[in-house]
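We read letters as residues; the fold follows as tokens. A sample entry reads:
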Amino acid sequence: MRTNIFMSYSRRELGFVDDLVNHLEEKEHNVWLDYRSLVPGKPWEEQIYQGIKNANVILLVVSKASMASENVEMEWKRVLDQKKRVILLVFEAVDLPAELEKFEWVDFRGNYKTALMELDRQLQTSEQEGHSAPETGFKVPLVVWGAFALSVIVAVMSIGALWTLFIPFFLFTLPYRILKRNFKYLYVEAALIMLPLALYLTTQFTADDNTFFITDIFTLPSILVVIALLFVLRSAGMQRWGKPEAIRPYSAGRHALKYPDMKSVSFFIEHASQDRVVAAEMADTFKAHGHLEAKDPKSAEAVFTLVSAFKGDSEVDCEKQVVYPVIVQSNNKVSRQISRVQWLDFRLGVKKLDAVAKLLSEPNMLLRALCIRPMGDQIVLPATILYLTYFIALLAVICIGSWFPYIIQYFPDVVENPGLDIPMMLLIFSLILFGVIAYFMGRQLLARKGFAASLGGLLFGMLLLGVIIYWQTAIDSSVLSILDLEEDSFGISSYYPTYFYLIGNLVMAVYLFINRADLKRWFPARKG
């Protein structure tokens, strides 16, 4: 039986809702979902009320966030006024308002497929459940417990990488954050990838006879645990479970597109001055397809608002004009009006501009084919910037970790050789300085603000790190000279950082040159 369904929910459960709606549409139900159904340029409140009016069934996702949402409350109260059928979808057990306790429900806290079958059954009938929905008790899907168990192992292992600071910072609290659904997926993924290497370097702290044992117990199994946890975190169940910041990026336009007959549309691209490289590329593509650039946003038929760290709102009223938010950088401080509609997502790179231009005259087709759910809290980066950030972090892990066994070996000799105290203090200072510079380079690169958010600043920062590595090698030579030693008995403290820096920078330079367009778009344009 084909049913008209209205979805009422909180954006904190977007992963669950999106997957559920896909299932309902596969069952050939008509689903009204705000970010898929709101038409740009028309009052949203009227559209929401019309969606409720046309619905046979209201599916209300019950969670802590939805029960605290004023928008959701407005929707279900409107539903009660119209005496519509309501089915509660229990995502989290919370205290329900008295008005909602009488409605039928489906418990989605356990097996997802079983819950879908129960929902399908209820949608095929008009029966009402004779008992109240669960309001207490903690129950989560099995896949969440699997992720929790693996994350506990990883959390314990991360203690062995305590010297890196950022790895245990993101992994030690991961079990708790998985249950709370609010871990930062991108940072956790980076910490997991680097954990085995950090643990290997940690084994260098031990005596020779224990090195194999610690390597066998921690380093090698950590690779298997990391792979398993990454696989589980990317599973469909965890994508439904996590809040927007805890799930993988969602991509649109995965199906073949059918283009309408071309019609000229006047457009305007509003943007911060720092994003004018992307704006110019969009404008050139649209004009190449016969569209006309308007002089101001109010006179344009379609307004594109570039969302980034430098801009989070539109100058026009999204309920009176057709506005397409275009997210070029994650921003969790966007305005309420542009968070209500679907976005064009350029966080992974500026792509499919030709397709956007061909669909510009048909807003509904453009929204359905190329736009995504609004997810400003989610951290997503172009591959070029992601790998560059990973390289800087990995460089810090190797260049700092490689010197720890050296310090442990020679620091006791300071008592017998007073001349070692200054070199050893300088070496420790250089490690701290290296870590601080690498940290701020990565942070500024991600934020697109600061000296590292420019080509010149990035090159200067990498050169500065190289100077520190050379300085550390000079300190190493002075220490060996004081001790009358010909070479470093560990053999890694000088070699690993030097060769990884030289080879890594060479590979990264080639990669960045090939993908220089992404780098140019990411670095904020100079004001002028």
Q: What stands out?
A: The first helix runs from residue 14 to 26. The CA atoms of residues 132 and 179 lie 25 Å apart.
